[in-house]
């Protein structure tokens, strides 16, 4: 036996010992992973997890459809309300700030403005439809102010 052959054999034995140690280490890790379980229960666990993932995906899809419906309803709901009080008879020195204009607007500026004119003898109530923050009927300055202040998104 020459020195080259003995070095080769020692190197080969060292590699075999390293592989054996690595194999023992992997067996220990696999044992920890399974912890008294067998392959069948591991497969059942994976199948259960896959079923749960599918249920979560189905729920997410249902929630997406539901939220789209909520978003459509929300756009059409009243999101801006503002009231402006005023005295329509201040020029003649009578009355008080009992009259008002209130605007009710959705996200797109559609809605209604309701005005009430108060005098000692009577109270008159008027309403005007709004589309995109304007009306086909002439708006008073107070009604325009109420509509401007009621725009959704304004603080």
Task: Summarize this entry quickly.
The protein is an alpha+beta fold and 155 residues long. Helix content is 52%, strand content 19%. It has a domain at 80-150.
From the helix content, strand content and strand pairing, which structural class follows?
alpha+beta
- Please count the helical segments: 3
How is the largest sheet built, in terms of strand order?
1-2-3-4
Total number of β-strand segments?
4
Parts with pLDDT < 50 across at least 5 consecutive residues: none
Radius of gyration: 40 Å
Helix-strand sequence:
HHEEEEH
Mean pLDDT, to the nearest integer, reads 87
Largest sheet: 4 strands, antiparallel
Give the proportion of residues in helices: 40-55%
> How much of the residues is beta strand, in percent?
15-25%
Which overall shape is indicated by the principal axes computed on the Cα atoms?
rod-shaped
* Terminal Cα span: 95 Å
How are the elements arranged and paired?
Layout: H1 3-34, H2 39-76, E1 80-86, E2 99-105, E3 111-118, E4 123-130, H3 141-150
Antiparallel strand pairs: 1-2, 2-3, 3-4
Verbal overview:
The protein contains 3 helices and 4 strands; from the N terminus they run H-H-E-E-E-E-H. The termini are far apart. A hairpin with a 5-residue loop joins strand 2 (about 100-105) and strand 3 (about 110-120). Strands 1-2-3-4 form a 4-stranded antiparallel beta sheet. By secondary structure, the chain is of the alpha+beta class. It has a domain at about 80-150. Helices cover about 50% and strands about 20% of the residues.
């Amino acid at each position: 036996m020459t020195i080259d052959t003995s070095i080769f054999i020692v190197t080969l034995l060292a590699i075999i010992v390293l592989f054996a140690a690595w194999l023992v280490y992997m067996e220990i890790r696999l044992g920890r992973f399974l912890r008294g379980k067998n392959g069948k229960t591991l497969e059942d666990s994976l199948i259960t997890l896959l079923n749960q993932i599918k249920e979560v995906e189905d729920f997410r899809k249902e929630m997406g459809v539901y939220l789209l419906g909520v978003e459509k309803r929300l756009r059409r709901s009243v999101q801006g309300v503002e009231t402006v009080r005023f005295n329509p008879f201040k020029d003649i020195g009578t009355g008080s700030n009992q009259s008002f204009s209130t605007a009710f607007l959705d996200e797109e500026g559609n809605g209604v403005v309701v005005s009430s004119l108060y005098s000692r003898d009577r109270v008159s109530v008027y309403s005007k439809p709004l589309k995109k923050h304007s009306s086909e009927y002439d708006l008073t300055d107070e009604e325009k102010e109420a509509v401007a202040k009621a725009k959704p998104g304004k603080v």
